[in-house]
């Protein structure tokens, strides 16, 4: 049986914190930025944490 591979899409999108939580990038910051307020775009730059309800599914993708 070969080793299970980590899903490389998840590997690029999520990072683990020291306490085991998962960081993610905010959505809606890639295009059509002219109609969005500067304050809103600045807020979307920050990283946020994944909701605990999605934690197990993402960990399954990362651990392979």
What is the CATH architecture descriptor?
A: Irregular
Within the CATH hierarchy, at the fold level, what is the topology? Factor Xa Inhibitor
**What is the CATH C-level name?**
Few Secondary Structures
Broad structural category: alpha+beta
Q: Helix and strand succession? A: HEEHEH
Please tally the helical runs, counting DSSP H or I stretches of 4 or more residues. Answer: 3
Secondary structure tally: strands: 3
Helix content: 25-40%
Give the strand content.
Answer: 15-25%
Indicate how many domains the architecture comprises.
1
What strand line-up does the widest sheet have? 1-2-3
Task: Assign an overall shape.
Answer: elongated
Tell me the major beta sheet. 3 strands, antiparallel
Subunit arrangement of the protein: single chain
Mean residue pLDDT: 94
Termini separation: 14 Å
Give a structural overview.
This protein has 64 residues and is α+β, with helices and mostly antiparallel strands. The chain has a single domain, classed as Irregular (Factor Xa Inhibitor). It contains three helices and three strands, in the order αββαβα. It has a three-stranded antiparallel beta sheet. The radius of gyration is 15 Å and the shape is elongated. The mean pLDDT is 94.
What is the compact description of this entry?
This protein has helices at 8-13, 38-45, 55-63, and strands at 14-16, 22-25, 47-49.
Task: Outline the fold blueprint.
Blueprint: H1 8-13, E1 14-16, E2 22-25, H2 38-45, E3 47-49, H3 55-63
Antiparallel strand pairs: 1-2, 2-3
């Amino acid at each position: 049986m070969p080793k299970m591979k980590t899903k490389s899409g998840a590997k690029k999108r999520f990072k683990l914190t020291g306490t085991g939580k998962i960081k993610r990038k905010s959505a809606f910051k890639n295009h059509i930025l002219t109609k969005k307020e500067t304050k809103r775009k600045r807020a979307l730059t920050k990283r946020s944490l994944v909701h605990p309800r999605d934690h197990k599914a993402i960990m399954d993708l990362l651990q392979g």
